């Protein structure tokens, strides 16, 4: 499995490596740079002789684990000793022994929070930098300035595409001398690219046609078709299968059997494994050979390699996540891919032998309609988590931070707003003691806040469980994709145990109430303390909700599982897919909003509208009640008294 | 939003199907009845709009206004005493309209000049290449292939716009070496374009104001008379893109005359310098940079930029003299982006 690029070449590179503090390395996916370069660096650096280690970051946790395993095997050492990995909620290293550590980029960022100079490391390798994940982007900014403080630290930025110039310039010591570039020889074969003569009126239909054309007319070799989502993929698979069967029936002597395999992240692992099945064998010994068609979302674009693919069909679309700070929505919409993405897709055809890529658009449109690069994640993400981490890191000036690509100012404004309302940052933008504790939890700030206040509601045990379950959601998809046992990976217990340790460290008590009815109320009240900025109010009787302050018309997501339509709901996500939906919701009371999030629900500064009137009615009623009774002996009042002690 | 939907008491729509109220209601019961009736009517109207339509309208309204504008409106209306997050950012040196990211020099006039070195090498500097507005959310409708649908344009950065203008200026310079007949024709076309630039810019102002977004297109509204000549000169001298000998393609005498006229209006060197620094303070360096690049273009190119802006942002065709409802309408009814196709 070890790639066979020449040792001499690498030795030359290493000479350069010792002369330059920061270098940029490019190599195609599959060139072996991820497994080979860190080994060579470790052998030349000998970090353990100085009590240090080499870190190699990966955008995905599964990659960090599987690469570490492979390298440990190659070096014939036990995983977790000399070679280890560290991912959120799981540290497989042995302090003092481990000298090469694979880790997620997010983990290194978290380590930097408590050790801004990253003293433990002699060399830091940022792998897959072209993917431009949020954490890698932030790390680039931090490492650039750290390089000035720590002259002994070596930095290698590894990237798959030819966008390396951007990194070279960014890491250039002075603007006139870009950081040196090295190429790791690839092992890819040439790919011939074809375009259509005219734009396609229906790209799905065109894709199906193209797949069948390849099946009928091209040499043996498997096909990879890129589509955008589950429904589209399943539909295409059905149609391809039907048409292919027709072809075989009409002309069994010239057309081989075809098997069509879908691939998307929500597919169960056993199903995903099917992409590695061999193509069907010929019906007769001398008959035309069978062919495998994989119909995939863009997970097959960068992270997953399927052997035997010779033909790629690229309609030019993908679903992309984009956060918009103006209405605080996460959109997941179909949009055209970038040129870089199209090149990456084409490259998938050349892994085993020379291949062909069929682009279902004109060459002119490729040039004029596609953007150069996919927007880096930092431009497309909610930054509240990142901003808290940066402030904890001691970055005071978030406006003039040296971003590789600076996010939209309004996105920063939203992040600061949230952190300020959660009392993690004061009005000057400085970290509060509460914010410092929140940053220690590897969680979204809303979840961290909720967990920290939960003992006041006597439900921290339950909150801990809820949080452990919610926080692993993002990685689930990758578990699927990498056909590893989800249960073994998720280790919800492990997550819980880690969070519990953090809670103990900061004296967050673990308590429960025995009265289940009351417990259920308290859990929802604790939710309000973290998620009060994500509330929607029902308008009318048709199941429409309006998000608070942004007034977006939204619907409860069908997966919500609420059997009623409460007047006020708190939501975990506001997503825009086929429609604007709020997802993972909980029934809350207006009284709680006013009581536990008084700042945010301050009526004097609340925008006019139906929501404000509804809140006003509740305030008036409460005032009336209090005046009428002359005390606060109601059930709510009693709770309040206890909590505000 | 709700203010507009409030129905007029006296409209016949309201009277329809209800008991005509002879006198204004007086008692509490009457008032409540009225309120009920009004609410029902409003509900009725909302129901007639499809949910989908309301979702889209709310979204578009929300997306069209920047958080800075929203903060300012709230402050002006007295509902809030200033947005805390924004004031944190301002303390860090941010000004609405700017991008985030590292700036090598303190934000005075000098960065404008510093950046010229990068423009020379043809690559816009990264520090100016950062986005100012969030990435737009555009839905690709249906299954149309690339080339047939509408692509979400990423917010163009000042640096990208400057690079585009630099390219245009370069092309114009190449053209100026052509023969006499061609030149005469071009001079004529330039003059025509100059005449049209005014109305086009005014349309642009009107539509921008209606949409409430002044920052993006400000540079498009510049013209040489309003721009402090000395600032332009300095920029030009330092500029990477050499100024064509015939500035804007107009005879040098005309230009001199105008320069003299401008000078006559501002006889004191001092006042002009003040003017200049005031300008530099009011506008971001990026904007001034863009404006000066813009002014260096031929009138035809400037006109082309303004018209393209109107088309892309407002579906307005200058040659048709009208604004189209949507892209489809424009495609069907407007013969094309240039003047020739409107003959």
Automatic annotation (TrEMBL), chain A:
What this chain does, per the entry, is described as: Pre-mRNA processing factor involved in disassembly of spliceosomes after the release of mature mRNA.
**UniProt xrefs under SMART domains:** AAA, DEXDc, HA2, HELICc
**Known EC number(s)?**
3.6.4.13
Keywords for this entry?
Answer: ATP-binding, Helicase, Hydrolase, mRNA processing, mRNA splicing, Nucleotide-binding
Region Disordered: which residues? 621-645
List, for all copies, the residue spans of the domain called Helicase C-terminal: 207-394
Where does the record place the Helicase ATP-binding domain? 14-180
A single GO BP: spliceosomal complex disassembly
An MF annotation (GO) of this entry:
RNA helicase activity
Kindly give the SUPFAM superfamilies that the UniProt entry links to this protein: P-loop containing nucleoside triphosphate hydrolases
Q: What class of enzyme is it?
A: hydrolase
The name of this protein is RNA helicase
- Where does the record place Basic and acidic residues bias? 628-639
Organism of derivation: Sphagnurus paluster
UniProtKB/TrEMBL annotation, chain B:
Which GO molecular function annotation, any one, does this entry have? nucleic acid binding
Q: Which cellular component terms (GO) are annotated to the entry?
A: kinetochore
PROSITE patterns per UniProt: G_PATCH (PS50174)
**Domain of life of the native organism:** Eukaryota
What the entry lists under Pfam families is as follows:
DUF4187, G-patch
Query: Where does the G-patch domain lie?
Result: 81-151
Positions of the UniProt region annotated as Disordered: 33-81
Listed InterPro entries? DUF4187, G_patch_dom, GPATCH11
Biased composition annotated in UniProt, kind: Basic and acidic residues: 33-73
Name the chain's protein.
G-patch domain-containing protein
Q: Which organism is it from?
A: Sphagnurus paluster
State the organism's lineage: Eukaryota, Fungi, Dikarya, Basidiomycota, Agaricomycotina
């Amino acid at each position: 499995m070890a790639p066979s690029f020449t040792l001499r070449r690498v030795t030359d590179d290493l000479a350069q490596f010792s002369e330059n503090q920061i270098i940029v390395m490019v190599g195609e996916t599959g060139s072996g740079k991820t497994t080979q370069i860190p080994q060579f660096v470790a052998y030349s650096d000998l970090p353990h002789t100085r009590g240090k280690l080499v870190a190699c970051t990966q955008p995905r946790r599964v990659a960090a684990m599987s690469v570490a395993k492979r390298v440990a095997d190659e070096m014939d050492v036990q995983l977790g000793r000399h070679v280890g990995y560290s991912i959120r909620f799981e540290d497989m290293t042995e302090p003092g022994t481990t000298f090469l550590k694979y880790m997620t980029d997010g983990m290194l960022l978290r380590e930097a929070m408590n050790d801004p100079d990253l003293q433990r490391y002699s060399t830091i390798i940022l792998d897959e930098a072209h993917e431009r994940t949020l954490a890698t982007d932030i790390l680039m900014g931090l490492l650039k300035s750290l390089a000035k403080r720590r002259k002994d630290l070596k930095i290698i930025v590894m990237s798959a595409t030819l966008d390396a110039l951007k990194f070279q310039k960014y890491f250039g010591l002075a603007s006139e001398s870009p950081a040196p570039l090295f190429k790791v020889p690839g092992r890819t074969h040439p790919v011939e690219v074809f375009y259509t003569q005219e734009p396609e009126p229906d790209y799905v239909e065109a894709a199906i046609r193209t797949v069948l054309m390849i099946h009928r007319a091209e040499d043996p070799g498997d096909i990879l078709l890129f589509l955008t989502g589950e429904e589209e993929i399943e539909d295409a698979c059905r149609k391809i299968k039907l048409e292919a069967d027709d072809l075989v029936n009409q002309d069994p002597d010239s057309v081989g059997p075809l098997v069509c395999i879908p691939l998307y992240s929500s597919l169960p692992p056993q199903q995903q494994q099917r992409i590695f099945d061999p193509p069907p064998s010929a019906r007769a010994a001398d008959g035309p050979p069978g062919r495998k068609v994989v119909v995939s979302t863009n997970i097959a674009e960068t992270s997953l390699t399927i052997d035997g693919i010779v033909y790629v069909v690229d309609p030019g679309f993908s679903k992309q996540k984009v956060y918009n700070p103006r209405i605080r929505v996460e959109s997941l919409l179909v949009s055209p891919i970038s040129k870089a993405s199209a090149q990456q897709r084409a490259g998938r055809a050349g892994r085993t032998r020379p291949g062909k890529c069929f682009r279902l658009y004109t060459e002119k449109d490729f040039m004029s309609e596609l953007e150069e690069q996919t927007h880096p994640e930092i431009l497309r993400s909610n930054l509240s988590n990142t901003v808290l981490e940066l402030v904890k890191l001691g970055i005071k000036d978030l406006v003039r931070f040296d971003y590789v690509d600076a996010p939209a100012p309004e996105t920063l404004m939203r992040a600061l707003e949230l952190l300020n309302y959660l009392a993690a940052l004061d009005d000057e933008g400085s970290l509060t003691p509460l914010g410092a504790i929140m940053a220690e939890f590897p969680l979204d700030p809303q979840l961290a806040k909720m967990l920290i206040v939960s003992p006041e509601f006597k439900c921290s045990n339950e909150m801990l469980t809820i949080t452990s379950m919610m926080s692993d959601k993002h990685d689930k998809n990758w578990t699927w994709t990498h056909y590893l046992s989800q249960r073994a990976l998720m280790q919800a217990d492990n997550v819980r145990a880690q969070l519990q340790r953090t809670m103990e460290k900061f004296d967050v008590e673990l308590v429960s109430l025995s009265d289940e009815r009351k417990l259920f109320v308290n859990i929802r009240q604790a939710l309000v303390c973290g998620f009060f900025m994500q509330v929607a109010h029902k308008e009318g009787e048709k199941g429409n909700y309006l998000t608070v302050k942004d007034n977006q018309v939204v619907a409860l997501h069908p997966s919500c599982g609420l059997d009623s339509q409460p007047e006020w709901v708190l939501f975990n996500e506001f997503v825009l897919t086929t429609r604007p939906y709020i997802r993972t919701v909980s029934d809350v009371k207006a009284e709680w909003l006013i009581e536990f999030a008084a700042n945010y629900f301050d009526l004097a500064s609340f925008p006019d509208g139906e929501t404000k009137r509804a809140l006003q009615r509740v305030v008036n009623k409460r005032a009336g009640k209090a005046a009428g009774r002359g005390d606060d002996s109601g059930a709510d009042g009693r709770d309040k008294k206890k909590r505000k002690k | 939003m709700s203010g507009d939907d409030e129905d007029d008491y006296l409209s016949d729509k309201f009277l329809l199907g209800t008991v005509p109220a002879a006198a204004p209601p007086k008692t509490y019961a009457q008032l409540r009845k009225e309120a009920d009736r009004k609410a029902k009517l409003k509900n009725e109207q909302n129901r007639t709009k499809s949910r989908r339509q309301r979702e889209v309208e709310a979204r578009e309204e929300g997306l069209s206004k920047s958080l800075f504008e929203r903060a300012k409106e709230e402050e002006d209306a007295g509902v809030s005493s200033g947005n805390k997050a924004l004031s944190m950012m301002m303390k860090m040196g941010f000004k609405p309209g700017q991008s985030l990211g590292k700036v090598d020099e303190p934000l005075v006039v000098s960065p404008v000049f510093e950046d010229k070195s990068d423009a020379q090498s043809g690559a816009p500097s990264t520090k100016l290449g950062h986005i100012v507005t969030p990435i737009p959310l555009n839905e690709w409708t249906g299954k149309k292939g690339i080339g047939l649908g509408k692509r979400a344009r990423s917010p163009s950065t000042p640096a990208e716009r400057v690079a585009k203008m630099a390219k245009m200026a370069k092309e114009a310079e190449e053209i100026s070496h052509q023969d006499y007949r061609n030149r005469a024709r071009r001079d004529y076309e330039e003059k025509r374009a100059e005449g049209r630039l005014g109305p086009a810019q005014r349309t642009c102002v009107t539509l921008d104001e209606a949409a409430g977004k002044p920052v993006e297109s400000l540079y498009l509204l510049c013209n040489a008379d309003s721009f402090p000549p000395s600032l332009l000169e300095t920029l030009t001298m330092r500029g990477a893109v050499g100024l064509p000998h015939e500035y804007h393609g107009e005879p040098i005498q005309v230009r001199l005359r105008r320069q003299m006229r401008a000078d006559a209006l501002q006889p004191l060197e001092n006042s002009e310098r003040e003017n200049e620094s005031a300008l530099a303070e009011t506008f971001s360096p990026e904007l001034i940079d863009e404006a000066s690049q813009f002014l260096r273009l031929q009138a035809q190119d400037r006109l082309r930029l303004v018209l393209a802006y109107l088309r892309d942002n407002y579906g307005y065709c200058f040659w048709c003299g009208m604004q189209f409802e949507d892209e489809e309408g424009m495609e069907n009814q407007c013969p094309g982006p240039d003047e020739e196709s409107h003959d």
